Amino acid sequence: MDHLTDIAALEALYGAPVPASLTKVATRLTPAYHRWVAASRFAVLSTVGPEGSDTSPRGDAGPVVRIVDDRTLHLPDWRGNNRLDSLRNIVRDSRVSLMFMVPGSTNVVRINGDAAVTADAALTASFSREGKTPRTVIVITLREVYFQCAKAIMRSGLWSSGDESGRVPTAGDMVKAQQPAFDGAGYDAAYPEYAKTRMW
Q1: Is a pLDDT exceeding 90 seen at residue 196?
Q2: pLDDT tens digits, residue range 32-44?
Q3: At what angle do helices 184-196 and 171-178 cross, to 10 degrees?
Q4: Which burial class, exposed, middle or buried, applies to 35 when counting CB atoms under 10 A from its CB (0-12, 13-18, 19+)?
Q5: How far apart are CA 58 and CA 64, in angstroms?
């Protein structure tokens, strides 16, 4: 199998970009992009570091990020598994990308920029909820924002195909595959109640 290793050959294979794919890019949150990001409760955060890249889902009960101004976002790091893959990467390489999704919309909005991690007490406290406070907040400086063509979500039927979770292994199944003695069924049954007190 031959691999493409030359940018000119790659571009020749595809042809020129669709003009709108370039003109839709903004260097700040315009009013339209502001409304879109403010409506998103779920985003995918991508980072890069010496060990490679990382992609992490981020979600909240309201807006997943706080919009500070048209070039600054705050993303609280709510309680998780303490792997810290994304945070470790950001500390060493500030480049980040986010993909925001809104249920039912076939568009996504993408942001590329730079980030830093802060444990500033006043800032983390400003996100307090149900007696819980994030340990850190990711401060994102936006370099570009644009919406993604809707075809990917349209092709996948992401919002219209219904619940397909029965077709895939559960989290317990996946752990048990690595650790045969693990009680996968028990883990799956207990997890919803366990998670209720650990959302934030």
Answers
A1: no
A2: 999 999 999 999 9
A3: 130
A4: exposed
A5: 7
